[in-house]
Design brief:
The chain is α+β, with helices and mostly antiparallel strands. The chain has one domain: Alpha-Beta Complex (Fumarylacetoacetate hydrolase, domain 2), CATH 3.90.850. The chain contains five helices and 16 strands. A hairpin with a 5-residue loop joins strand 1 and strand 2. The radius of gyration is 17 Å and the shape is globular. It comes from Rhodococcoides kroppenstedtii. GO terms for molecular function: catalytic activity.
């Protein structure tokens, strides 16, 4: 058995929480307005991306791909990030759930062959600062989610645009995955047209204007050497 990936989060009260990741899941097509999601699926189909059999979707990802890193290695130039939030289950109740920022780095070449495959080609980068979900539950929709590709704003939305954490916690409970060590990413929001997504750096921010808090992650994208053979 391989060692579990370990993530450590700083909380606003100055404490830290360390979690061994045993299950990692990426939500997809998870907009709260499912009519807009259907239109987006149709657009992706024109680009060759296979449509899901149901929405919202949920993709299992290898747990070691949950990372807190400043660099992501890729095999070619057509990969990009996606601004998301992440739930970190640290215990048996919803009081034990943390919320942090995340960026799901995705292989766009592989995506046309299988979305689930593309999610396993690069890491999910998570922030190092997290909040207890119960502390922000009463104003989740006011929290903003933004991403910059090469320092150009490419995604700008709020958590009101995505299905709620409660939706996904219920889904985890139904699948017997509500347990310490489960990490779930929310799915992403629309990208701004005309911004180059195949960038050399990505930065994502969750901003809570009510409690004046930010959770951020960022990384550079590094091309690996060309294969031999």
């Amino acid at each position: 058995m391989t060692d579990a990936t370990t993530l450590t989060f700083a909380l606003p009260d100055g404490s830290t929480r360390t979690v061994e990741v045993h299950a990692l899941l990426n939500a997809g097509y998870a907009g709260r307005n499912q009519e807009e999601v259907a239109a987006h699926i149709a657009e992706l189909a024109e680009l060759g991306v296979p449509a899901p059999t149901t929405t919202p979707a949920l993709y299992p990802v290898s747990p070691y791909l949950a990372q807190q890193t400043s660099s992501v290695a890729v095999q070619h130039g057509r990969t990009s990030g996606e601004a998301e939030w992440a739930l970190i289950v640290t215990g048996d109740t919803r009081d034990d759930v943390l919320l942090t920022v995340a960026c799901d780095h995705t292989d766009r070449e592989l995506e046309v062959h299988g979305v689930a495959w593309s999610k396993n080609a690069s890491p999910d980068v998570l922030g190092e600062t997290a909040w207890k979900l119960t502390e922000v539950a009463d104003h989740l929709d006011r929290i903003t989610l933004r991403a910059w590709a090469d320092d150009v704003l490419i995604q700008d939305a709020s958590l009101a645009d995505l299905l709620t954490p409660d939706h996904w916690l219920d889904a985890l409970a139904e699948r017997d995955l509500f347990r310490a060590g489960t990490v779930l990413l929310s799915g992403t929001v629309q990208m701004a047209p005309g911004v180059e997504q195949f960038a050399s750096s990505w930065r994502v921010e969750l901003h809570d204007p009510v409690l004046d808090r930010r959770s951020t992650c960022g990384y550079t994208v590094e091309r690996m050497p060309s294969p031999i053979g």
